[in-house]
Write a structure and sequence with these properties.
It is a single chain. By secondary structure, the chain is of the alpha+beta class. The protein folds into two domains: 46 residues, no CATH class; 100 residues, no CATH class. Helix content is 24%, strand content 22%. The radius of gyration is 24 Å and the shape is elongated. The two termini are 25 Å apart. About 12% of the residues have low confidence.
Length: 204
């Protein structure tokens, strides 16, 4: 595809090279059968707001809405009108959210301190709240679906605030929260939440 128009922050338009539609240079490698019916034109419209993008999809202003936020995706699938007019697709993505500790700080230099803090992170609860139950926990940035390279010998750190407060680990904490304050971590050490990629297409 060749770039034909670019409006910064608004849209980009592309069109297929002539060689892709029977013309142009003869020294181009032949396309595979599954790719022969490619579109002659693709326009990418930048719509930062999910609600506005959903409205544009349902009005027919756009044909595809990729990377739909999980909550909006679930809302559309639950709508009888939307489910009859749109086709919904979801697949595993490479989106990963991790939490790490700066071990140069004295308070986090001790491994048992980091372990105790890790047990305060409710990764499964975060997946349920932010991805509507989609996605899965992983011990690193590699997806568990990549069985050849995923390190399945590492166990997921459990959500166990009570265990984090046991003397064996709590006594190693370099700092403690002030009275009335709470630790509100987001994800456990060496854990990540891989969010699914969702998309929607108008029904045909």
């Amino acid at each position: 595809m060749a770039l034909t128009n670019w409006q910064s922050g608004k849209k980009t338009d592309t069109s297929a090279f002539a060689a892709n539609h029977g013309g142009g240079p003869t020294n181009c490698a032949p396309r595979q059968r599954c790719c022969r019916r490619g579109p002659s034109r693709l326009d990418f419209v930048i719509i930062p707001d999910a609600a506005t993008a959903t409205l544009a999809l349902r009005r027919g202003d756009v044909d595809v809405f990729p990377q739909v936020p999980a909550r909006e995706f679930a809302r559309l699938r639950a709508s009888p009108a939307a489910s009859s007019a749109l086709n919904f697709y979801s697949a595993a993505s490479y989106d990963v959210v991790t939490a790490g500790f700066n071990t140069r700080r004295p308070a986090l230099a001790d491994s048992l301190t980091r372990r105790a803090l890790s047990q305060c992170f409710d990764a499964a609860g975060l997946l349920k709240a932010t991805q509507m139950g989609g996605g899965q926990r992983t011990v690193g940035i590699i997806s568990p679906t990549e069985s050849v390279i995923y390190n399945d010998s590492l166990a997921l750190t459990p959500f166990d605030p009570q265990g984090a407060a046991e003397p064996a680990t709590a006594g190693r904490l370099a700092t403690k929260p002030a009275v009335g304050s709470r630790l509100v971590p987001k994800l456990p050490q060496r854990q990540a939440a891989a969010a699914p990629a969702g998309g929607a297409l108008p029904g045909r």
